[in-house]
Amino acid sequence: MSGLKLFHTTNGGVMEVAPRLAEAEADVQALIEAHMETMLGVRFLVSEYSTGPAHGGRIDSLGLDENGAPVIVEYKRGTDAGVINQGLFYLSWLMDHRAEFGHLVRDRFGATAAAQVLWSAPRLICVAGDFTRYDVHAVREHRRSIDLVRYRLFGRNLLGLETVASVSGGMPVARRARRQAVARAAAEVQGASMVELANAVDEVLLALGDGVNRVERKTYRAYQRLRNFACVCPPQRSKLLVYLRVDPKRVALVPGFTRDVSGLGHHGTGDLEVQLRTPRDVERAQDLFRASYAAA
Fold first, then answer.
1. Between the CA of residue 28 and those of 19, 78, 101, 208, what are the distances in Å?
2. For 141-199, how does the pLDDT look when each residue is reduced to its tens digit (9 = 90+)?
3. What is the CA radius of gyration of the chain?
4. Where are the alpha helices (DSSP H) in 167-277?
5. DSSP H helical segments within the chain, as ranges?
6. Residue-level pLDDT at 148
7. How far, CA to CA in Å, does 121 sit from each of 68, 69, 105?
8. What whole-number distance in Å separates Cα of residue 132 and Cα of residue 115?
9. Distance from chain centroid for Cα 119
10. Could you tell me the pTM of the whole model?
11. What pLDDT shows up at residue 21?
């Protein structure tokens, strides 16, 4: 974002729209909290949440992401070397107060959402005017899911958000072991070809760019770039279903390959369903995968 130039075009030429920081940190917080689901893919839960007299902190924003993972959002007007450590401090508190967070979710989103909180993948999102190279290095040293998001205001009513770094948490060995167990179970039921197809899709989606996080849920596997851009359901007997963040109205739908599921219930997120049966289908879907990745 720091190198991005924005121009307003007119009949007579162009005029650069100069980027700027907010006048106060609270301005950024208020704007994002009011539109958190659209901007970050996170349902807003509560603002300025006190962690109690013993802990002595106040979390800027709490939320729940598309996969049910708890999210802490911390804001800084400019560059602040302490934003990551502060967020991790609060994230540690959150993991020790799961019941308290569960009550907040139940009161706002209902008992079902509270029962399905994904505690295996808590997230920290830091929104700031800028980050240093030391910040980017620091997040890669932690075993937590952390997103560094740079903001800029343009003109009177434009806000730009750029993901500077995105790191998934968890234990790589454990994740690999779970994947292998799921693959073995699926192979016994559905046959090796569908498992191989699922592995091929996994490789393609992870290779789309830096900062792709994979989140495991019981009914789907989400691929996330701040927001979900693909959700892959467990293999069926003869096909693999992938849901993408692509507007079906902008796609030439092909019966048996792509389907508009906006308004229809399904696991995961995304309005475009892609049905994959062969490796050739994976190749056909590559442009759709890239479009969804860009949209997220």
1. 14, 11, 24, 30
2. 887 899 999 999 998 889 999 999 888 775 443 444 455 554 455 444 445 789 899 99
3. 20
4. 172-190, 192-206
5. 25-34, 36-40, 83-95, 98-109, 111-115, 133-139, 172-190, 192-206, 279-284, 286-295
6. 95
7. 9, 6, 16
8. 38
9. 15
10. 0.81
11. 95
